[in-house]
Design a protein that fits this description.
With about 260 residues, this protein is of the alpha+beta class. The protein has 2 domains: about 5-65, Arc Repressor Mutant, subunit A (Orthogonal Bundle); about 75-255, 3-Layer(aba) Sandwich (Chorismate lyase), CATH 3.40.1410. About 30% of the residues lie in helices and about 30% in strands. It has helices at about 5-15, 30-35, 40-55, 80-85, 90-95, 100-105, 125-130, 165, 185-190, 210-215, and strands at about 55-60, 65, 75, 110-120, 140-150, 155-165, 195-205, 225-235, 240-245, 250-255.
């Protein structure tokens, strides 16, 4: 048999899903809810805790509990990579009109806030093995954050790595001020004569670190999806590696695999 706080949570949950409580609307005070349901304030708090853990409401310090606004969802498919490659040789003005985030979310360029930072780092054992270069090889580490302007959390936490000597012939590829780059990484690599042959994506999941939960603004108990993207050129050389942390509450991943005819 459901406990009292679970029954109260069920009723409030149904009110939210039915639209009787709208996104951004403040819930009645705990004392008011206690009187409404004929229960104690601690029981009401337990019910509200359940809803916060599910990501349906959020508590704003000094203001009360509010219905959480749905976040923009992301549909990430493996077909996005061919879409990006098809755009590599398009004119710059055409490439500027849209990018991978817009492709995955349905938003427009002007809807987004973008931030990039570059730094040089040395390949650790993991990255040296992945790239097939000596440990300590100089890499360009690029950190990206993109968010919907109406929201405070980014769609993902992205860290990308390039071998510095592989791209240094184009100084623009070492300069974060050139971001956002029309056409993304595939076009950047094209400027130094690199064509991608395939992209491998390895997906795992785990609980977030406290820092990840805060930056992605995750509801309690939400997992993160970890994606390592490894890009190979037509000479079977690893040319870029990205480690991407995706919020589990608003990311959908869809994989389509064409099958050859018998």
């Amino acid at each position: 048999m459901a406990k009292a706080y679970e029954r109260i949570a069920d009723e409030l949950r149904e009110s939210i899903r039915a639209g009787q409580l709208s996104p951004g609307e403040r819930l009645p005070a705990e004392t008011v809810l206690a009187e409404q349901y004929g229960r104690s304030v601690p029981t009401i708090r337990e019910a509200l805790r359940l809803l916060r853990d599910e990501g349906l409401i959020e508590k704003q310090h000094g203001r009360g509990n509010f219905v959480r606004r749905p976040r923009t969802s992301v549909l990430r498919t493996n077909l996005r990579h061919q879409w990006e490659k098809n755009r590599v040789q398009e004119p710059e003005e055409q490439r500027k009109q849209t990018g991978a985030t817009e492709h995955d979310t349905g938003l427009q360029v002007n809807d987004l806030v973008f931030r990039a930072s570059y730094r040089e780092t040395k390949a650790n054992r993991d990255l040296s093995e992945a790239f097939g270069v000596p440990e300590g090889e100089v890499l360009v580490e690029r950190t990206y954050r993109t968010r919907y302007a109406a929201e405070r959390a980014p769609f993902a936490l992205v860290t990308s790595y390039l071998v510095r000597d592989m791209v240094a012939s184009n100084p623009d590829l070492l300069n974060e001020e050139k971001e956002p780059w029309p056409g993304g990484t595939q076009n950047q690599l094209f400027t130094v004569g690199i064509e991608l042959d395939r992209i491998e994506e390895r997906v795992t999941a785990r609980p977030p670190t406290p820092e990840e939960a805060e930056e992605l603004d995750l509801p309690h108990g939400t997992a993160v999806i970890l994606l390592r993207k490894t890009s190979y050129d037509i000479n079977d050389r690893v040319v870029e590696i990205s480690d991407i942390t995706l919020p589990g509450d608003r990311t959908e991943m869809l994989f389509t695999t064409p099958l050859e005819r018998w």
